[in-house]
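User: I'm writing a short methods note and want a consistent example. For DUF2996 domain-containing protein, I'll paste the sequence; you return only the structure tokens, no commentary, since I'll be parsing the reply automatically.
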Amino acid sequence: MAEETNQKPAETEKTAAKPAAKKEKPPAVEDKPFEEFMQQYYLPALQQAIAQEGLTDVNLTFAKQKYPLIGFDSTEECWQIIGSWQNGQRQFNVYFPDADIQGQKGFSCHEGKKPSTLESFLIDERKITLDLLVNRLLYRLNGQKWLGRN
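Assistant:
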């Protein structure tokens, strides 16, 4: 009988030592459906970041349309972030042909005319995040001398 009483406390210790169930993390905003991510997270974050750079008249849109490039007569449409200011004199486009922030991305910009060059955008990054998309676009616009005191 002494052996039986020794076993019962050991069993209760084992059951009491089970780890608590882990709480599930909510999905990252980058894991949301593409259109939801762009409209609810990316556009507002980009608008705020651009305003912090001193540009208050920027109009940002998210649309699926043809590439607006000189000499590129494709009928293919892709999702784009289109930003313009100074009454449309300055404009940039960020292209998402795969409708996926982790997929291919492109960039074009122009002053007063249609763009003639499509550049790759964020091609070397392993994981694309909301902050990375916002910061690298600001970096690219600053390289154009379109932000701040440039």
